[in-house]
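PROTEIN DESIGN WORKSHEET
SECTION A - STRUCTURE
LENGTH: 150
TOKENS:
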């Protein structure tokens, strides 16, 4: 599982011109799945997302987690996070979970996240053509891969 976290002042996602999810201060999490991802990957990633200390404390040092500040999360599925770009100029997405598996993984991930984080969680729409707007704060952008946890 790969996630790109962006610390945001606000973010939103639109489908067909309509806002379907939006947050104020918090994290925009772009999430991508591969077939071998398991609940262990999801649990590990959720802990990283909510406990990573990327928000400033009173001295301006990144020492506060999303959980500490009770921030919001916007989760958007993005299969392109597993793009292979080594050969040629057209990315390959062969490592991304097929849609019928990825939607199950996405829903399982969201259910686990909601069970562990009791603050606002918004989402995009799986498989839709989405338009994501955000104001990255910092900027702070962090890439995390559950296959690199050891």
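SECTION B - SEQUENCE
RESIDUE ASSIGNMENT:
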């Amino acid at each position: 599982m790969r996630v790109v976290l962006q610390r945001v002042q606000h973010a939103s996602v639109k489908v067909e011109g309509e806002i379907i999810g939006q947050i104020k201060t918090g994290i925009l999490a772009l999430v991508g799945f591969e077939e071998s991802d398991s609940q262990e990957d999801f649990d590990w990633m959720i802990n990283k997302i909510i406990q990573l200390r990327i928000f400033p404390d009173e001295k301006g040092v990144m020492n506060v987690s999303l959980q500490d500040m009770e921030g919001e999360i916007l989760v958007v599925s993005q299969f392109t996070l597993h793009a292979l770009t080594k050969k040629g100029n057209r990315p390959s997405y062969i490592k991304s979970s097929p849609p019928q598996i990825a939607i199950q993984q996405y829903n399982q991930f969201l259910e686990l996240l909601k069970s562990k984080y009791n603050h606002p969680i918004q989402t995009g729409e799986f498989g839709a053509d989405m338009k994501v707007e955000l104001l990255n704060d910092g900027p702070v952008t962090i890439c995390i891969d559950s296959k690199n946890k050891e």
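SECTION C - NOTES
The two ends are 14 Å apart (CA to CA).
Residues 99-116 form the longest helix (18 residues).
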